[in-house]
Amino acid sequence: MSFPLTLLSEFTEHPIVQAPMAGGVSCPELAGKVSESGGLGFLAAGYKTPEAMYEDVKQLRGLTQRPFGVNLFMPQPDHSDSGSLERYRAQLAGEAMWYETELGDTDHATDDAYEAKLAILFDDPVPVVSFTFGCPTRGVLERFHKRGTFTVVTVTSVEEAQVAEWSGADAVCVQGAEAGGHRGTHRDDPQEDGTGSALGLLSLVTHVKEAVRLPVIAAGGVMRGKQIAAVLAAGASAAQLGTAFLVCPESGADPVHKQAMTNSLFNRTEMTRAFTGRPARALVNRFLREHGRYAPAAYPQVHHLTAGVRKAAAKAKDPQGMALWAGQGHRLARDLPAAQLMDVLVTELAVAREALLKRGSPGGAA
User: Which residues have a Cβ under 8 Å from the Cβ of 237 and sit 6 or more positions away?
Assistant: First the structure.
């Protein structure tokens, strides 16, 4: 099966992409509803086995005939320090005792079965494949092109966008500082923690558009149609929304996580390494406050270390021990079915675009 190489806009009726959120959130049911509603639904292959990824693709194909995407995590270098990991293990001993579970083994591969997942997607192509935590080689991207797969590389800087363009990507997903979940940086540099060096979405989109000729998908804090209109006006071809879709009933997120998005108890987000060892934006809860400052730069080792605690906290319906990934716009989340949310976003986008046209017309307001 092959797909013609084309413009990003030809994959969707509306310029709305549902973000690939790992950990079971971006499941076939959610992606299928978004694609059927004229957006671009995405599956997240991160943390899944190749076989589980393939089953998700097969299930999604049974739910929609429209285009969809699959996101892969790039292999990560192992720069973890055993001493730092053991100190963090000791730091978390009380958590394991409290939730009556065990801390996980950190001796795991750091490639997320990348090569095996590539082999499946080369053998049985899907319309779109995106990449997070790095950029594939030119050879990998060329193989996807030959199979008619449109490729997208997540970037957080102009330099990363330029690497993606040089390597042959078809588009870049520009991730602003507002985005929930992991920062998709190509290089994890602990020296940048807390420096505020990450650019906001509109500034970053503008910088990237002036540096590369690739289509841009804008991601980070987008929750309303008027925000989609804003990033399109800044030069993006589409907006990618994660937190907005996380609360939908079709999402695979834990109900406790969904409820926390608009719970007044969680009134802000913060970048933290507490849960996975890589910077990620989450709602500030007890676990983040108590352990964030001690978490080493060790991904995915810390992810595996804390997995049991996070699962036990979810089972106990305790949001204070969970990784509550969320973008800065989380309080704007709307508990709507995905198809209905798509309709609302499309209507809001049309209204915002009409308002922009009126302002720009000779008879419009100054």
Answer: 7, 8, 9, 15, 171, 215, 216, 217
Cα separations in angstroms, 212 against 220, 260, 321: 20, 38, 41
pTM summary value: 0.94
Of 25, 32, 115, 122, the closest CA to residue 69 belongs to 32
Q: What is the pLDDT of residue 364?
A: 56
Q: What's the one-letter identity of residue 107?
A: D
Tell me phi and psi for residue 18, to 5 degrees.
-85, 125
Q: What is the pLDDT of residues 200-217, one digit of tens each?
A: 999 999 999 999 999 999
Pairwise CA distance, residues 94 & 92, whole Å: 5
Domains of the chain: residue spans and CATH: 8-76+111-253+336-360 (3.20.20.70), 81-110+267-326 (no CATH)
Number of neighbouring beta carbons within 10 Å of residue 6: 13
The distance from CA 143 to its chain's CA centroid, rounded to whole angstroms, is 24
Residue 259: how many other CB atoms lie within 10 Å:
16
Q: For 60-111, what is each residue's pLDDT tens digit?
A: 999 999 999 999 999 999 888 889 999 999 999 999 999 999 999 998 889 9
CA 355, CA 366: separation in Å to the nearest integer? 12
